[in-house]
Amino acid sequence: MSPLTAILVRDLRIAMRVGGGALMGVLFFLVVVTLTPMALGPDLTLLQRIGPAILWLAALLASLLALDRLFAADHKDGSLDLILLGRAPLELVVAVKALAHWLTTGVPLIIAAPLIGLLLNLDAGAEAALVLTFLVGTPALTFIGLIGAAIAVTLRRGGLLLAVLVLPLAVPVLIFGVAAANAAVAGPVPFGTPFTILCGLTLASLVVGPFAAATALRQEIE
Amino acid sequence: MRLSAFDLACRRGGRDVFAGVGFSVGAGEALAVRGRNGAGKSSLLRMVVGLVRIAGGRLDLEGGDPELTMGEQAHYLGHQDALKPSLSVSENLRFWSSFLGAVSADDGGALAAVGLEALAGLPAAYLSAGQRRRLSIARLLAVKRPIWLLDEPASTLDGTAQQELSGFMRAHLAAGGLILAATHGALGIDGAHELRLGGAQ
Amino acid sequence: MAIADLANPTRFLKFANRTIPWLGGLTLVLFAFAINQAISAPDDYQQGAAVKIMFLHVPGAWLGMLGWGVMTVAALGTLVWRHPLADVTAKATAPIGAGFTLMCLVTGSLWGRPMWGTYWVWDARLTSVLVLFLLYLGVIALWRTVDDPARAARAAAILTLVGALDLPIIKFSVDWWNTLHQPASVFRLGAPTIDASILIPLLISALAFTLLFAVLLLAAMRNEILRRRVRTLRLLQASTAG
Asked: Looking at this predicted complex, what is its ipTM?
């Protein structure tokens, strides 16, 4: 087994065996969506109009919560030291870890999104657009979050700092994700325009994320 | 192969940990690093392997692979065990074997050598501290690297396991490897040089 | 672990092994009867055959709430009476109760679409049942996250007792608030308001689902006891291996 395959398999195994994980992310997603009508009132027309925005916000927050699982455990038990001494390039190792993280955190959100969209009275067109934007956008959230997770890894109460670091970086993804989801339903802008930009953002994050995170990790391990 | 250090200095958290440290270890030789707590034994090992920045002086490795960094040719056994509690004993070992670039698919008898093959399928969460240490040591046996940097390797090990560890170290030296070990007690190897940190410089 | 703790679970295992086969058989028979009754029941003059979703929806609601009730009693068993099987019961009931609550939500949603034109509304009853479902998921997550079974049991017990406050809210929500969901038709002061031709199949269906709940619970408790035994054996294996 090559080193990168080994770490992918290991991270997937751990994510599936440790209780919580995917279930918690989706549960938090559901809880945030449930809270919204309690704050805004049960007007279904209003909820339908802002539905995609609520779902994107909830997905962003749910992804954020899961981010410290990326490096914290490895740092605590000394695995991160050994990973830095391995022969696989750190940038690739970090990218593979992010892939494993997205598969176990992002994909459940993508699957849950249309079902939870029903709670906000989204119609079929809006649901389809939403799922597409999630499919393309959640990897960006993971790969951008990678950077914050790497910077915050050695800090003891890094949780809130992590959020403060990642959220501004994730803003473009949020803007274009919601814009694309809304464009499919209403508005003069065709779905393709914001969606293409979202794809571009994701592709950029797939490259920038691992490089920035690897650099941060190397600095931190002093 | 020869690992040499000249005038090494270490600075951590704004404080000078040590300065002017030098040593030379050749193939088949072992160096015991001693000193009171806080003298910088762990920092020295981490500096050699590449996890801590060198504040002054230099490190030389002759006879090693010029394409690889020091860390890629060394095994580092730190205070922590780098084991995942939800994975089984053999899954943990096989992961590190694959990741650190072992040639063979199995562990080459490493689990049996440390006496843990009966527990191969057990989740690592069930192991005692000494068993976890032995599993970490198995990592050194499963993947061949010439330089061993060991930080208190015998801690949490009982008498029998300590003797087995000395045996592994002797075998490693006989095969041409070299060892730097930070330790409070005896290494169990004849002819080991000593480097004392802190105190008389 | 004292000997007394082992004796009860062992006796329970014997009881479960003897009971599950025949109780399961009885459940199948009752389901066959219930399906028969449901098919022969008359259609509603307004909703047509869609009204028969009720035979799934209503038992789902009752058993979802019953599940939390069982967990509440088990929680008291853990915290107050220290009964050895209390936390096994609580842990085993959670997924089953969650499943029935989900069945209630999904069938209700499918029923609501033709009736109200939407899959969901945020009225008091639906929201409180959804909150119950979230509470179930929270308890399940708690059980899975805390490693030590004894600590997990105490934490889950406290959460269960607090969550039990949701049950009266669900029950009376249709009376306290103006809701889209219809008011209580069966469990109310005075006689039920449903005609017997629908009420009888409903009660039979409810009975069948309740037996199913019991069978699933016994099987889940048995699994949990066996799981704990495996854990003990593994601890033993590690400590004697040297």
From this structure: 0.89
The DSSP string of chain C is --HHHHHHHHHHHHHHHHHHHHHHHHHHHHHHHHHHHHHHSPPBTTTBGGGGGHHHHHHHHHHHHHHHHHHHHHHHIIIII--TTHHHHHHHHHHHHHHHHHHHHHHHHHHHHHHHSSS----HHHHHHHHHHHHHHHHHHHHHH-SSHHHHHHHHHHHHHHHTTHHHHHHHHHHHS--SSPPPSSSSSSS--S-HHHHHHHHHHHHHHHHHHHHHHHHHHHHHHHHHHHHHHHHHHHHHH-
Question: What domains lie within chain B, and their CATH numbers?
Answer: 2-196 (3.40.50.300)
Residues from chain C contacting residue B116 (CB–CB below 8 Å): 241
Residues of B in contact with C228 (CB under 8 A): none
Q: Do residue C137 and residue A20 have CB atoms under 8 angstroms apart?
A: no
Q: Does A18 touch chain B (CB under 8 A)?
A: yes
Q: Which of A66, A76, A57 is nearest to A97 (CA)?
A: A66
Q: Is the per-residue pLDDT at B40 higher than 90?
A: no
The answer to whether the CB of C156 falls within 8 A of the CB of C91 is yes
Confidence at residue A222, expressed as pLDDT on a 0 to 100 scale: 59
Q: Which residue of C has its CA nearest to B160?
A: C242
**pLDDT value of position B182:** 92
Global pTM value: 0.88
Backbone angles phi, psi at B148, to 5 degrees: -115, 125
C241 — contact with chain B (CB < 8 Å)?
A: yes
| Residue C241, CA distances (Å) to A108, A141, B90, B141 in order | 40, 46, 15, 21
- What's the mean pLDDT in C45-68? 87
Cβ separation A34–C109 shorter than 8 A: no
Half-sphere exposure of C62 (CA within 13 A, CB side): 20
pLDDT of C82 above 60: yes
- CA dist C153 and C91 (Å) reads 8
Q: With beta carbons less than 8 A apart as the criterion, state whether C205 and C59 touch.
A: yes
Q: Which of A136-145, B46-55, B84-93, B133-142 has the lowest mean pLDDT?
A: B46-55
**Residue ranges of the domains in chain C?**
72-181+194-232
Helix (H, G, I), strand (E, B) or coil at B158: coil
Q: Is A189 on the interface with B (CB under 8 A)?
A: no
Q: Alpha-carbon dihedral of residues A199, A201, A205, A206, nearest 10 degrees?
A: 20
- Res. C1 pLDDT band, cuts 50 70 90: very low
Of B118, B123, B125, the CB nearest to C241: B118
